[in-house]
Amino acid sequence: MRFEDVPPLLSLLTRSATGQAITTYFNMISGIRQAEEKDGPHEVHLILLDNGRSQMHADDLLQETLLCIRCGACMNHCPVYSRIGGHAYDTTYPGPIGKILTPQMKGLHEAGHLADASSLCGACVEVCPVKFRSQIFCCVYVTIRWKKNKQFHLQNPAVGKQKRKVWSGKAGPWFFQIRNSIV
Predict the structure, then answer these.
(1) 97 vs 159: which has the higher pLDDT
(2) CATH number for region 53-182
(3) What region does 137 belong to: left with phi over 0, alpha with psi -120 to 50, or beta?
(4) Of 62, 101, 170, 178, most Cβ neighbours within 10 A?
(5) 120 neighbors 133 (Cβ within 8 angstroms)
(6) Against a cut of 0.70, is the pTM above it?
(7) CATH code 1.10.1060 region(s) in the chain
């Protein structure tokens, strides 16, 4: 990342997450403290955790997940997240991005059910500063799980109604745009 890329990203992140003009806390470490500097680290240790991101990057569809800047705008507008809260997801990343990212990291067998916590309303896509298309992943995950299990149980009738609209072809125009981009 180049230094000139930081201000737009920082502005985008804080405006999307909290509506603030700038974050109240930001720290950029560019190296160890120089002799003439009064503060800064004596040593810098950089630890990079892959956590399955290389596999995501190698997959054409999953690669899009890595665009997320974790601003939280999707959570602020998600009707499901606003009703059930973050603890219901039982994962590090809650909300719309959590139900997409967690199955990629833990596997569909362990976390694929998180995609069922979606109304497929598209509010998350509308407010996402990087226009991450989370509905694609919800539909793909549900389809994969359905094909694998040969059964389709929906716990929430409201969610079931929306998904039945999607699978029956009666969904709004946003879904057909997404469906066409998958194919």
Answers:
(1) 97
(2) 1.10.1060
(3) alpha
(4) 101
(5) no
(6) no
(7) 53-182
